């Protein structure tokens, strides 16, 4: 991070008109102007080049003039005009003939009357940078004498030249030259001085004055060393500290919230001015010998320098503190952005919005009964460790009751120490009911309450193999991390989840199992769930503590009273009282019935008390919930067909939408199903969009919304019962539906499929709008937004950013909520209001639509043609559901835009087979195989293993090689997931392994059995090995085939990696697999196999250096330990070469009796002997093992050189020579 900030800090130089890489001194560039160089007859014009004579100092002198460097040539080329530099004492905007270098090498030009104010003093400009402001303040704080001296300026070149001439002894060597030779690394400090001043002065002319004094002081400091040698050490330290002034750049200015940097810099500048004054006082005295000057300097300079060193250290610490603060905030911002990328950016916001809505709907006192239940108190007090489950009928108020329970628990835990935590979630019949979504939300809440978990989460992600998908896409891995984190916290954690009945079956089963298992294992975890009565859910939660929501007239009366007073406030008190009394009698425990009845009364066509009484007495008692919905539908649409069609379309869209829609999205979707159905362009469809119309109709059927926030994802159906009504029949038919009508699950399933089919067709039709063919989703700037300079948090370094008064600068620029620059709006690029939803969710609707309701293959092909702008646009949007520039990784998605993968993951079986047949006919085999490999990867990664048999087909009449490649991919994925595989995933892999086993007969015919065995062994896939050997017991042909031992990589060079089964397993470190293979009958041929370059199983095992692996192999094949391959290497030599395998080498020497000389018998040792090798590598531990355990001759690595011994070979690590020699000679036999 330090290098990161250094690089960013240097970005401040980018605005400088001075080329910091130009070797031409800035002072001489300025000399190209008429004022600074009167000898030049031609004035330099911008863009022109002029050759200007360079002033040559007297021989042997080095003059520091502004940015001067040692003389290089007589002429210098200047491009354009150097900027005129202003003194801070001159009125802003007034031209001045001097530069900052006037304090160094030019006489100041007297100010004119126009440059002075009425009081005779120069007008002070408003300092525009930290340096100028601090310098101006420092000048104002020093004595008037010093200020006058600084403003008058002094030509230091002339000063030192006169000193040289006045002292006869030093005419041959200038004081400056001698001073620079005396300080350490003189050119380093001179270059540092130039680097400090050049870029900063170029950014702002006013700042050059502040840096001019730095140049002057540095020049004088060097001169002091030339006069007084005893000050060399102090001056060197002073020059080392001067560069801290450079740290006060734009970044430091923004971070200087408490003005500590500014105040410290003022003090540093005061020290520099005092140094400047003290030195000039000594050097400008007339008729004073250098010896006298030396004594005076030695007396006056040290205290000033010590003050400067002390104060510059303080300045450095202030800058360091400020920089550390911004680094922390950058890291915080980065981690927050990473969390949003991997877990989603909208989950917490949507949960909070929904919870607030429930809170506002809640009738005071209506839920109090819940917390008075003994079961609740026992659960909260942890006297029972089982989950608490709240059951109730649909519409009885479960969700509102759960929101009350959540608020109550939050209040209770506030005063407890250690402070417990609570995480909660509301499940809906959309993506929020998926267990991956649920645990993503719970984990974000947990990290919000315990921020240190964010770093732990970051490390967890970072440690995950980069070759595999993000673990946040795997429900099992994410669930495990969540509960591991909860356990590590060691404090009570309340997990509250509402709406289990609205989850998908598989997700619900996994969710309940994990909650039950982990709450049983960790008593600090307390789980509360709610659900409708369903036998399968009750069975899964058997043994849990239960609370059942039953009808309660007093609770009904409380709810009715609250809603009537809120929504029917326009009625007379007497009428309201009658409504409250009548509805309370009729409610029968159904909170949603009460809400719909009040909504109906609110929209009733007359407010005459008599009419309302008749309606409440005669009509309403016969109204079931379905009747209320039908009557409300009729009333709000005024029974007009166009209105009814619009409302019905909106309700059907919302019933199957994958997430809450925005007002804009719903308006475009309704328009596309209505009057804009024939539109073929976004522009033409836009003419039919009218949000006001349908919002007036739909309000009673949806949750409360913010009508001003048109792009906020907020519109959802008010209750699950409305969705159930839509899924039973069209809203246009609600008048004929009764609660007592029995609607089968098959009818609901069919209706759901129809609605998903209608929505997927609408989405695809939208994405295929003709005017989207050539539009680009991102601007050029957005395309570059993921480059290094635009990483999250980089905005703290943008110089153009406006600062916000009253806020800490780093908080303003590293706000965790400032995300505008990280998002995009497709509508701004001409994609309309429905593109985001259509792109992100058409595949989800395709998956849920039955074959007869889904898409034609031609539609999918039109939208998945790689390389077209239209396809790329929706694909890019698909990975950014929240319109963030950085792709979202919280959900698993296909790895590439390939039709085969998309259809096999999301399409019907018929579509998949149709596409596969078309590909086989129209494409070459290699292309088809590549597509299949990618599809296999996606199917396994996204948990769709049941589709693999459909994709991996085999036949005796077809070459099995493509299938073998796919079988290998399946087993490699199994190996990656094996350690963290759930039982459900294990069952799915078992099914595909059984499918693969069906090809054993073809493997025998086409001689692929041995290859299959070796593939399974290399992956450690024992389930497949077990199937092979079990089948081989009764199939001798299969046994003979798998136990063949051919060379599997003919023609390969010495890098051969293929072996036989035992060697392949050893090469990949599969110890359990080797143990399994060694138990099989007939495996000896594979155990003794030697490949084409001479490797046996021990050579292959050296790759991982597992001593237990060698123990297994030695137990069956001890004679193979000393085998030499084609290049002469034994396993022992390979282990010594790899280093750090001391335990294995010890085992081979001590137990397996490996030859420590590896077959070499000459008296003189060989270059390739293990001890010679270990000595060359400087591996002392290996040498000790070879000598102490193996009995190697320690003197074999030495040779006589005269009367001394020396190593025969050069050492890679010379620093180990002494230790090696000491040990080896101490063991001399």
From TrEMBL:
Pfam families: Ank_2 (PF12796), NPHP3_N (PF24883). Residues 365-532 form the Nephrocystin 3-like N-terminal domain. Keywords: Repeat. Residues 25-39 have a biased composition (Low complexity). The keyword Metal-binding does not apply. Residues 1-82 are annotated as: Disordered. Residues 70-82 have a biased composition (Polar residues). It comes from the Eukaryota. PANTHER family: AMELOGENIN, NACHT DOMAIN-CONTAINING PROTEIN. This is Nephrocystin 3-like N-terminal domain-containing protein. The lineage of its organism: Eukaryota, Fungi, Dikarya, Ascomycota, Pezizomycotina.
């Amino acid at each position: 991070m330090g290098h990161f900030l250094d690089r960013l800090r240097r970005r401040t130089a980018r605005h400088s008109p001075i080329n910091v890489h130009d070797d031409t001194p800035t002072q001489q560039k300025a000399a190209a102007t008429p004022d600074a160089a009167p000898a030049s007859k031609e004035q330099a014009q911008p863009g022109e080049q002029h050759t200007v004579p360079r002033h040559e100092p007297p021989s042997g002198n080095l003059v520091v003039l502004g940015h001067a460097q040692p003389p290089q040539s007589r002429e210098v080329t200047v491009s354009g005009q150097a900027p005129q530099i202003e003194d801070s004492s001159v009125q802003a905007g007034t031209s001045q003939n001097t530069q900052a270098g006037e304090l160094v090498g030019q006489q100041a030009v007297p100010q004119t009357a126009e440059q002075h104010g009425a009081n005779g003093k120069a007008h002070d400009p408003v300092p525009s940078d930290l340096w100028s402001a601090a310098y101006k303040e420092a000048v104002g704080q020093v004595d008037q004498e010093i200020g006058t001296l600084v403003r008058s300026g002094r030509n230091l070149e002339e000063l030192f030249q006169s000193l040289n001439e006045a002292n006869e002894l030093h005419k041959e060597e200038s004081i400056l030259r001698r001073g620079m030779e005396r300080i350490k690394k003189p050119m380093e400090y001179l270059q540092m001085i130039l680097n400090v001043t050049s870029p900063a002065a170029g950014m702002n002319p006013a700042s050059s004055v502040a840096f001019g004094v730095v140049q002057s002081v540095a020049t004088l400091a060097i001169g002091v060393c030339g006069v007084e040698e005893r000050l060399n050490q102090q001056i060197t330290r002073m020059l080392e500290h001067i560069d801290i002034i450079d740290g006060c750049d734009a970044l430091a200015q923004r971070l200087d919230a408490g003005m500590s940097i500014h105040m410290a810099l003022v003090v540093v500048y005061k020290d520099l001015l005092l140094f400047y004054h003290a030195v000039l006082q000594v050097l400008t005295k007339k008729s004073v010998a250098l010896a006298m000057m030396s004594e005076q300097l030695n007396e006056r300079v040290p205290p000033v320098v010590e003050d400067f060193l002390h104060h510059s250290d303080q300045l450095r610490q202030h800058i360091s503190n400020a920089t550390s603060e911004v680094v922390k905030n950058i890291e915080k911002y980065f981690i927050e952005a990473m969390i949003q990328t991997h877990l989603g950016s909208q989950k917490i916001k949507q949960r909070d919005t929904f919870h607030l809505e429930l809170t506002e709907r809640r009738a005071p006192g209506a839920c109090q009964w819940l917390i008075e239940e003994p079961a609740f108190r026992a659960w909260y007090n942890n006297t029972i460790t089982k989950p608490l489950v709240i059951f109730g009928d649909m519409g009885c108020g479960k969700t509102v009751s759960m929101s009350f329970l959540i608020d109550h628990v939050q209040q209770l835990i506030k005063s407890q120490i250690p402070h417990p935590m609570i995480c909660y979630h509301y499940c809906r019949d959309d993506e929020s009911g998926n267990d991956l979504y649920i645990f993503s939300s719970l984990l974000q809440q947990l990290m919000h309450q315990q921020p240190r978990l964010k770093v732990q989460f970051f490390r967890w992600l970072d440690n995950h193999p980069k070759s595999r998908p993000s673990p946040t896409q795997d429900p099992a891995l994410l669930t495990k991390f969540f509960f591991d984190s909860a356990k590590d916290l060691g404090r009570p954690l309340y997990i509250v989840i509402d709406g289990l009945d609205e989850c998908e079956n598989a997700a619900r089963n996994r969710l309940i199992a994990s909650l039950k298992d982990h709450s049983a294992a960790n008593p600090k975890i307390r789980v509360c769930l709610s659900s409708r009565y369903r036998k399968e859910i009750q069975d899964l939660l058997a043994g849990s503590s239960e609370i059942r929501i039953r009808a309660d007239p007093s609770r009904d009366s409380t709810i009715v009273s609250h809603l009537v007073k809120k929504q029917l406030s326009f009625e007379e008190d007497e009428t309201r009282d009658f409504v409250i009394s009548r509805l309370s009698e009729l409610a029968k425990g159904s909170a949603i019935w009460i809400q719909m009845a009040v909504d109906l009364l609110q929209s009733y066509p007359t407010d005459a008390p008599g009419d309302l009484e008749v309606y409440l007495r005669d009509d309403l008692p016969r109204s079931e919930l379905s009747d209320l919905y039908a009557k409300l539908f009729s009333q709000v649409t005024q029974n007009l067909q166009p209105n009814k069609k619009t409302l019905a379309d909106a309700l059907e869209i919302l019933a199957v939408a994958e997430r809450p829609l925005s007002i804009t999205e719903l308006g475009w979707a309704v328009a596309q199903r209505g009057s804009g159905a024939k539109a073929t362009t976004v522009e033409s469809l836009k003419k039919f969009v009218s949000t006001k119309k349908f919002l007036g109709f739909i309000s009673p059927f949806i949750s409360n919304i913010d009508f001003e926030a048109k792009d906020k994802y907020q519109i959802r159906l008010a209750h699950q019962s409305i969705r159930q009504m839509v899924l039973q029949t069209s809203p246009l038919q609600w008048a004929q539906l009764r609660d007592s009508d029995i609607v089968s699950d098959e009818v609901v399933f069919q209706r759901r499929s129809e609605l998903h089919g209608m929505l997927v067709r609408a989405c695809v039709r939208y994405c295929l709008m003709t005017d989207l063919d050539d539009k680009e989703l991102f601007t050029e700037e957005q395309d570059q937004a993921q480059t290094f300079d635009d990483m999250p948090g980089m905005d703290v370094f943008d110089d153009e950013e406006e600062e916000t008064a009253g806020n800490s600068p780093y908080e303003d620029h590293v706000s965790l909520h400032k995300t505008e620059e990280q998002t995009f709006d497709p509508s701004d690029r001409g994609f309309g209001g429905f593109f985001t939803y259509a792109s992100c969710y058409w595949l989800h609707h395709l998956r849920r639509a039955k074959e007869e309701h889904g898409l034609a293959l031609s539609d999918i092909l039109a939208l998945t043609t790689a390389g077209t702008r239209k396809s790329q646009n929706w694909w890019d949007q698909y990975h950014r559901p929240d319109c963030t520039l950085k792709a979202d990784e919280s959900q698993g998605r296909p790895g590439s835009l390939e039709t085969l993968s998309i259809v096999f993951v999301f399409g019907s079986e018929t579509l998949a087979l149709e596409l596969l047949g078309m590909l086989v006919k129209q494409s070459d085999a290699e292309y088809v195989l590549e597509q299949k490999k990618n599809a296999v990867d996606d199917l396994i990664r996204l948990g769709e293993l049941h589709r693999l048999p459909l994709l991996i087909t085999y036949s005796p009449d077809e070459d099995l090689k493509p299938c073998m490649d796919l079988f290998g991919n399946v087993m490699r994925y199994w190996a990656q997931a094996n350690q963290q595989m759930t039982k459900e995933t294990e069952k799915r892999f078992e099914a595909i392994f059984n499918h693969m086993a069906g090809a054993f007969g073809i493997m025998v015919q086409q001689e692929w059995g041995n290859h299959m065995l070796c593939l399974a062994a290399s992956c450690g896939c024992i389930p497949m090995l077990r199937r092979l050997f079990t089948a081989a017991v009764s199939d001798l042909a299969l046994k003979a085939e798998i136990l063949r031992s051919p060379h599997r990589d003919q023609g390969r060079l010495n890098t051969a990696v293929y072996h036989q089964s035992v060697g392949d397993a050893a090469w990949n470190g599969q110890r359990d697999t080797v143990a399994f293979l060694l138990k099989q009958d007939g495996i000896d041929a594979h155990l003794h196999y030697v490949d084409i370059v001479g490797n046996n199983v021990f050579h292959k095992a050296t790759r991982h250096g597992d001593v237990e692996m060698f123990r297994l192999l030695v137990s069956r094949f001890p004679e193979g330990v000393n085998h030499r391959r084609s290049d002469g290497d034994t396993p022992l030599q390979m282990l010594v070469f790899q280093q750090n395998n001391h335990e294995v080498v010890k085992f081979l020497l001590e137990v397996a009796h490996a030859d420590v000389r590896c077959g070499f018998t000459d008296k003189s040792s060989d270059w390739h002997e293990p001890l010679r090798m270990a000595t060359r590598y400087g591996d002392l531990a290996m040498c000790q093992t070879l000598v102490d355990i193996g009995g190697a001759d320690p003197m074999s690595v030495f040779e006589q050189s005269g009367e001394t011994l020396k190593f025969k070979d050069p050492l890679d690590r010379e620093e180990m020579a002494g230790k090696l020699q000491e040990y080896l000679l101490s063991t001399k036999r």
